[in-house]
Amino acid sequence: MKLTKLFKSAAIGLSASMLAVSVQAADVIKIGAVAPKTGALGGGAVVTQWPNVELWSKQVNAAGGLDVGGKKMMVEIIEYDDKTNPGEHIKAAQRLAEVDKVDFIVAPYGTGFNLAAAPIYAKYNYPHIAVSAISDKMPELTARYSNLFFTLGNTTSFSESVVDILKDMRAAGTIGNRVAMVNVADAFGIELAEAARPRLKEAGFDIVYDKSYPLGTPDLSPIIKGAKESNPDAFVAWSYPPDTFALTEQAIIQDLDVKMYYTAVATCFPAFVGKFGSKINGVFGAGGVNQDSPDIQAYFKAHKDITGKDADGWASANTYVSLQILGQAIEGAGTLDRQAVIDYIKASSFDTIMGPISFEDQISNRFWTVGQWQDGKFRGVKSSQMAGAAPIVAKDGWN
Amino acid sequence: MVETSLVLAVQNVTKRFGGLVAVNNLSFDVSRNEVMGIIGPNGSGKTTMMNLISGALALNEGTISLNGRYISRLSSHEINRRGIARTFQLVRILPSLTLLENAMAGMVFGHQRLWGEQARHEASKLLERVGLGGQQSVPATALTYIDQKRLELARALAAKPEVLLLDEWLAGLNPTELQEGIDLIHSLRDEGITIILVEHVMDAIRSLCDRCLVMAAGAKIAEGRPQEVLSDPEVIKVYLGEDI
Amino acid sequence: MTSGDVKQLVWGAILLALAACVPLVANGYWMSIALTIAMFTVLSTSWALFSGPTHYISLATAAFFGVGGFLVGTGMSDYNTDYWTMVVIASLAGTVLAFLVGLATLRLSGVYFVIFTLGLAEMIRTLVSWIQNNFTGSRGLYVLTDLGEADIYIHLVLVAALVYLAGWWIARSRLGFAMRIIGNDEMVARHVGINTAFSKVILFTFSGFVASLVGALIAPRYTYIEPNGVFSPELSFIVVIMALLGGTGRLWGPIVGVIPFALLQEYINANYSNYSTLVLGIAFLVIVYFLPHGVLGRLEETWAKRRRSTW
Amino acid sequence: MDIIITGLLLGGTYALIAFGLNLQYGVARIMNLANGEMIVLGALAAFWIFVADAISPILTMLIVAPLSFFGNWLIYRFLLRPLVRRAKNQGQLEVDSILATFGMAFALVGIMVSIHGEYYTYSYLAEPFEILGETFALNRIVAFCFAVLIGAALWLWLYFTRTGMAVRAVSVSTEASGLVGINVPQLSAIAFALGGAVTTMGGTLISTFITLDASVGVVFTMKALIIIIMGGVGDIRGAIVAALILGLVETAVARLIDPGLTLAAAYAIFVLILLFRPQGLFGRKPS
């Protein structure tokens, strides 16, 4: 008796919840996100990628959802940890498409992952707005995958901008011709160092120290010592997050006194200034934002209020922008039809916290390339077509 | 005549472990069809000598030759393939294999190379011979210590060796088993196998050995027929202590 | 060949044929799981061909796998070589490397062997990074082919067929018998005339060849090859663990570890996405404590029981 | 000179990584693949407490050590002891402990990610310190001093106390030690717990100059394994010598040849040593 009752109520509950799901499904836009929470890139994705997914979805839902052809639809995020493993990522992407049947996806984190997953997302024709990917193969890839968009820029412009800064500083008489350059022996560091080498030489700089170090080197003091002995005017490191911290710590300790000091990824992280405080005033790093823009300031505030964390000074905003683009494209197309949304992205200009963004052959040419820590803020100083670049200052010791 | 019957020649062999000289400039010959005993107190280098012959250890100086060809630089599997098989002082069976497989192990890769049905057939005959018939598919771990020794002998014989090295193979047998063991070794000799044995059981040495080599502290102190050697005062002194 | 041997071959062929039919029914998601399973089945089974009988735990899989993937990437990106040419070159290079590594490890045993292979794999990984950085001058390694997951899967099933056939043959050959003797007692093995070095190197080389072939075949799935990704030491550990989980006593042992483990991992990732690592760890501990002899051991126990109860 | 000091400092770091695992593997016979995660746990504690209350990592280390000892003791008692008991031989135990500690490593990573998924980085004693006119990082020097202290304390304990002698006996032969009346299970538990405590202390110290994150543990596990194997299992002197060799080689290669080859050179040295001494520098020859 009791048992049948239990069964009955369970059955009613089950069908009710199934009903709820199907009702909900009609009103909800499902968006899948696969990025690392653990593994080699976990530490970076947790700063740059995940908080923005959270921030954007909460903001959209707080505003009542996205307007899809006159109907307000809430967004629901389905997230998976790819453990910084390409195989895992591909599997999770397939699961999003086949099992969860998500309507859209958030692009993966990291160059390799965006490229590894591109064929999968292309197969299901998801608009794939790759943020954290820097490559010179972008034109070839966008030709191959018509759903793929790039926003963060390419290797060439990143290395060119650094060379431009060196040229500017040399012209101003702050530095001479001696440049020490190091790179992490990983695809990212190798590509950038290779792109920079001929440009530096062409611009008449002497590369007085040019070495790589393996990923995961525990002690980078020999690098800084070696660089210091070469008596450079400028120091450029195509580095990854843990080495960016370690190189800078050693540079401070060894007092590597250069007027131009550049480290690449993670220089813009809140943890970077959190660790070094005012000592890193004048340090250059990859990326940047326009700190004076009211939109950016509002974004930073919302980021802190909603996720409880500080945004970084570069890729965070870009990641958020890519989600803004996706949201606006869905609203603009007025449908969840992916091809329509892709076509809309290709054809339209988007009003984002970084200003208007549009795509030319699926590649956006508006992005920051170099930023600099100036009085506690990471300001964009070099860019491709961005407004509001701050003037560069020479580094004046490690105080 | 004497020349052709020489099977194994050990010449001026020395083996050192760090500062310890385990075998010191030792020489002896073994003729075809002979049973040669190596005796001596514990730690006198008997087992080391066996290991040098079988290639388990590399010697420092000297040479060992089999049928006139040097084997002292060869590795143990090559020595085995030339026709020297052995048993170990502390029994080494192959625990996860069956009895039949244990016996077969000796004939697949060594001096005699059989495989397949023929090998199985020969191996089961050998098991029969050492007294382990009818237990072919029993796992080797199920055997008693004594039966494990029989099994090890079967494995050594499986190679159809020219020279068989027995390292205290008779130790620990009860009188009945001992007699069986001695008979077995006799019959092996009758088949033309040359045998070198390290042994403490004096009865066995007396009844089995044609010749004996007495070692003390790595060196040879006597060599000859068992009766002569065992009555040598020097040998008695070594065995029973200085005082007598 | 006994009738039992033939029966095994027929069964194996039927199962592999069934496995080859998976792309006909699976959707993309199940296809990618099947691909993962196929990849680890081949890697773990070929690993166990060497490590199962000898009990030598090799952590060098990633080195060979990495050489396969990396050479395919380099050849296609930097030298515009055709994919299949590179697959052949890469697996040959992996084989030669495995042969050299096999020779180098001969004197080692136990945990020294385990860690030696780990250190060697790491050395190769950092050397490759350095060479790429300084000489090949690559700007990102792309493996752009028209091969879909189903194609790659079929390739892997073919390699699996090769591995199982090799395993089946080895188990019936002198070589397999020699390996079992070596696993029992290497000293005895030498004294019954087995060239232990030769036997070990042969099998080690074969498993290295398979790993590099798999690395080359799976490369199109990743599109973009990073040395630190394909040489990941984690892969070596996972291969060992899946094989041990299944059981290395039989040729089909690893696969009964790979399939449930891959599915379990998938289930955890799908349902506990925020805590997947934690839940996976706990699941692991539960497996170790409740399946003491691996899946294979449990299966054989159950069969033994059933047989006893029916008789 | 500069190279030697830098190399020694790095070697000290490596010694900190390897001491604990050496005790755990050498005595308790547990090939602990979660060793690196213990290091990261120590680093996480230091980072967390430093960022929250600006408490010195040195102090944190003293708080963490007994906690870690207790925690590792529990792990051994309740998770590993059953494995030791059911293992029929050393090989079986090795396989089981690899599987079990691999699971533990996963679980620990999962826990740490949920506590703090970002990089653990902060500045503590990141100041220049001059020795013979060359500049070194003070935090590395402090860590080196502690490595020396911990190493010396372990050595004194192992060679001059009754328990220490018993521990060494167990490391030579578990069976024989049991026969002469040594309480092997209890000593193994102590060695494992102490090893864990030392490892965590190492992690706390290392966090002052290396940026870690929750998933980085496996890198340290591999380094530690290589060091103890290079030194010879269970030998504390071996671990120290191996750690210093690695530190010196890496630094010398970085300064004199190419920083890109540091790790390759370190592994090459390891490989060469094992080729010529298959039992490690101080290991006993297998009989």
Can you walk through the features of this model?
In chain A, 46% of the residues lie in helices and 21% in strands. Chain A has 399 residues and is an alpha/beta fold. Chain A has two domains: 3-154 and 292-368, Response regulator (Rossmann fold, 3-Layer(aba) Sandwich); 155-290 and 370-384, Rossmann fold, CATH 3.40.50. The longest helix of chain A is centred in the first third of the chain and has 26 residues, at 2-27. The model of chain A is unreliable at 9-25 (pLDDT under 50). Chain B folds into two domains: 1-83 and 164-244, P-loop containing nucleotide triphosphate hydrolases (Rossmann fold); 95-161, no CATH class. Chain B is globular. Chain B has ten helices and ten strands. Chain B is an alpha/beta fold and 244 residues long. Chain C is mainly α and 311 residues long. Chain C has one domain. Chain C has 15 helices and two strands. Chain C has helices at residues 3-20, 22-25, 28-54, 61-78, 83-104, 110-136, 149-171, 174-184, 186-191, 196-222, 227-230, 233-246, 253-271, 276-290, 294-310, and strands spanning 141-142, 224-225. A two-stranded antiparallel ribbon of chain C has the order 1-2. Chain D has eleven helices and two strands, in the order H-H-H-H-E-E-H-H-H-H-H-H-H. In chain D, helix 6 crosses helix 8 (184-206) and helix 10 (236-257) packs across helix 11. Chain D has one domain (2-222). Chain D has helices at residues 2-26, 35-53, 57-86, 90-115, 138-160, 162-172, 174-179, 184-206, 217-231, 236-257, 262-276, and strands at 128-131, 134-137. Classes of the chains: A alpha/beta (399), B alpha/beta (244), C mainly alpha (311), D mainly alpha (287). Chains in contact: A-C, A-D, B-C, C-D. The A-D interface holds A 37-40, 42-43, 46-47, 84, 182, 185, 211-214, 216-219, 221-223, 225-226, 241-242, 245-246, 249-250, 252-255, 266, 269, 271, 274-277 and D 2-3, 6, 9-10, 13, 109-110, 113, 117-119, 121-123, 126-128, 135-138, 140, 209-216, 219, 223, 250-251, 254-255, 258-260, 262-264.
